[in-house]
Amino acid sequence: MQTTQFEDGVPTLEDKLLQRAVAMVLETAYEQDVLDCSYGFRPGRSAQQALDVLHREASRMAGGWIVELDIRKYFDSIDHERLRKVLHGRIHDGVILRLIGKWLKAGVLEDGRITHSESGSPQGGVISPVLANIFLHEVLDQWFEQMVRPRLRGRAHLVRYADDAVMLFEYEEDARRVMAVLPKRFGKYGLTLHPEKTRLVPFKRPDRMTPWRGEDDRPNESGTFNSLGFTIHWGKSPITGQWVVKTRTAADRFRRTLNRISKWCNDNCHEPLERQQKVLNQKLRGHYGYYGRKGNGKRLTSLLHWAERSWWRALRRRSQRGLSWDALSRSLKRYPLLTPTRARPAKRIRISKSRMR
Question: Which residue of 2, 257, 263, 345 has the fewest C-beta atoms within 10 A of its own C-beta?
Fold first, then answer.
């Protein structure tokens, strides 16, 4: 079997097709070994399911303690030699191993020159997410399940989507013990955790927080943590008044979306209104589809209002005389933007009892 050459360090169409075929082989070989904590780049798994599990387990433990992991430049830092050793433990087909080795050596285009590195996943390769997932299965998932959980005092769960990983612990002492050994564990495989973004967060339900033993005896504050574009926090249910785990669009993701919509409106304000409406609705539909989780209605409504206002401002600049709000309202009635609707619940997954503690 032969593979085509890379053009400027980026795989050609033929090579991408071959990579897709090899990726399917790897997925089939590893699917029986991959643990339930992994949700990224797996058939029948999604980010929404990972968020569902985070929500469920945090609610069951009334919060607990969270270790939020951030691997510094993960996809650029995967050590090729260590990755090969991981693959050799499960894949014995020499042709597949040689192909992967060739893709890893293909190089990266930088400032018009191709440079070769001993780390990083193939640039632009469809096989990159699969290789990255397999590597973290070895580095994190198996270690946590086989070495960490049996030694803990209380319950603990790992939820990982690609390199976005969160650990939930029932007790603070367990969380601190694992937090202390994480840098060494990742360093063993040539990876580095971001010292500021990898953090320990108290996430106890506010009515169960242990008070400080200080002079003012203030209660501890329950923190928030981010995962998969959402900020996860405690809030009171408007119906029951009870404390519940909630999700909202993370502030940085929300600002990024607002800025993109504003820029698009300004750059395309001279296009026909019908086309502008179509593209804006496509952007809104995509955002609603991912971020339309229960409890995130305020963020979605704010996005809609921002989109309408950004569109109005862009259209006013298009007209020399300006466009009044009444005129815009008439236009919006004729070309309405999509309103957020409650998203369907994510597809449920069945977790084998043998893998649950």
Answer: 2
SS3 176: helix
168 in Cβ contact with 64 (< 8 Å): yes
Report which DSSP code applies to 72. T
pTM greater than the 0.85 cutoff: no
Cα gap 266→325, rounded to integer Å:
18
SS3 62: coil
134, two tokens:
């397999």
What DSSP state is assigned to residue 215? S
Tokens matching residue 125: 């390769």
Alpha-carbon distances, residue 356 vs 25, 34, 118, 133, 174 (angstroms) = 28, 14, 37, 21, 18
Place 349 in a pLDDT band, splitting at 50, 70 and 90.
very low
> Can you spell out the DSSP letters for 258-316?
HHHHHHHHHHTTTS-HHHHHHHHHHHHHHHHHHH--TT-HHHHHHHHHHHHHHHHHHHH
For residue 234, give both structure tokens: 């405690």
Asked if residues 23 and 42 have their Cβ atoms less than 8 Å apart, the reply is: no
Task: Provide the token pair at 306.
Answer: 């921002």
Distance between CA atoms of residues 106 and 127, nearest Å = 13
Which pLDDT tens digit goes with each residue over 84-96?
A: 999 988 888 899 9
Q: CA-to-CA distance for 63 and 61, rounded, in angstroms?
A: 5
Tally of CB atoms within 10 A around 101: 13
What's the confidence (pLDDT) of residue 123? 61
Listed residue (45, 41, 115, 113) closest to 76, CA to CA: 115
For the packed helices 297-318 and 273-291, what is the interaxial angle rounded to 10 degrees?
A: 160
